[in-house]
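Can't attach files on this board, so I'm pasting raw text. These are the components:
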Amino acid sequence: MSNVKPTVIALIEQIAKDDKKTLPPLTDDLVLLESGLDSLAIAILVARLEESLGIDPFTDSDDISYPVTLGDFIQFYERAACSHEVDSGRAR
Amino acid sequence: MKSILAALADAPAAAPRVLWGAPASVAVDDLAQRTSLGGRRRELAGRSVLVATRDQLPAAVALLELDGLARRIVVCPPDIAAEHMPAVVAKAGVDAIVSDRDATEPGEWGLSVRVTSHLALSPADVVDVDLCETEWVLLTSGTTGAPKLIVHTLASLTAPIAVGPSLGSDVVWATFYDIRRYGGLQIFLRGMLGRRSIVLAGIDESPGDYLARLGARGVTHISGTPSHWRRALMSPSARAISPRYVRLSGEIADQALLATLRSFYPGASVGHAYASTEAGVGFEVNDGLEGFPAGLVGAPGAVEIKIEDRSLRIRSPRTARCYLGEDVALRDEEGFVDTGDIVERRGDRYYFLGRRTGVINVGGQKVYPEEVEAVIARHPAVRMACVRSRRSPITGSLVVADVVVDGEPTPAHKSDILRICHEQLAPHKVPATIRFVSALDVGAAGKLVRQHA
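---
Top answer:
Structure tokens for the assembled complex are below.
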């Protein structure tokens, strides 16, 4: 799904702005917890992504491997978004 | 009960015990002869002493030195708002302070006895006064945001409980908690009395740096909240540690996290404990499953557990004694502490559902909805707000708000409300999401209807 990455990036930038934090460049290999976002910020990001994308892969998946880098995190959501589409397609 | 230093002097450890901070460290056995308090132990004897340091290590050392010496130790957590301190000082009758800042700095509430802690220890002064049983006062957040003061003793903080399945030898402890909160303090004290070294996080030390240091020091036993552990698993340094015992407490430990930790650290026993500042450590669950066995309820023993009105109640030598400066009983007439945690029995196990009072537990830190609602209501367009909990896979819960505004809600309303919240509340109390609704339920008593567990 193509809108995952820009949505994630925009939400991260908004959360950093609210916290008055300056972020390093948001590259795929950036380690989330070293980006200046703490676990509270990541929790808020996950909640807002559920609002805008309608998915929460942490809660929906049985097998959690916690994403370490921003690239992992986006992939985690992209995969969940794909299977979500497949599931809802089947439901129709 | 003997003071900690007296207990340590009676039974020296085979190997030196060290409190590892970042970057400093202190050899615990040195405190028999030497002091961090600049030769001023005698001045602090019999007083109500506030320990308010920026760094954990000077607080840890001061706590060891003050037990049995001070009449009362008031343990100040790192993030307490300065506006609440005058009330804490008054309620606890504080008449001396130990800090790691320069004593000439302002903001120390006009206390005449001010001692600056130095981790480069100096020879200890001889104290010839009668040593006393010290009251330990811990702070937790209250409904209005002002802290509640909770009285423990060394005995209640350390009453026997087998921590972990089997400790073995060469144990080194670490805790993701700050030792100035109950969860961290009881690990710190048990570690000290058990003659173990402990690795403490430094000020602003990142989770990755702390984990790397735990790995380098060969830490074997680590405690933290489920949120602390999820954060650890998101760090590239999660592989730097190879714990033998992983302990969770302070929040509901869910099955997914327990399973993830077991597969991530195959060499570790993963256990979770029920504990709160008021109720103390209730019990430990080491069978790898969430919730707790129904057999614990009503079982005879030092710790008694009952469920009444759906909430978990605990009577044990580990419960706190009372609140300070408040006319509220901490225990009921039979000595049980009502934890306010709602449980439900399914089969032969009880599972935690949440808090009765609506308190939201964000990564182990309590949030009272009323406090956040009062701040949201400062926006002129807000008619009503209802703050509630939302599940989070990262911090257990998050704060979210349903808000009624005059007229049509706009994006500016949302950003203005969030700005007010960011200005006036600690970050974990700021709503993660705000939803505009046309009305909120008000019950017959004129109170907001809250959806609790």
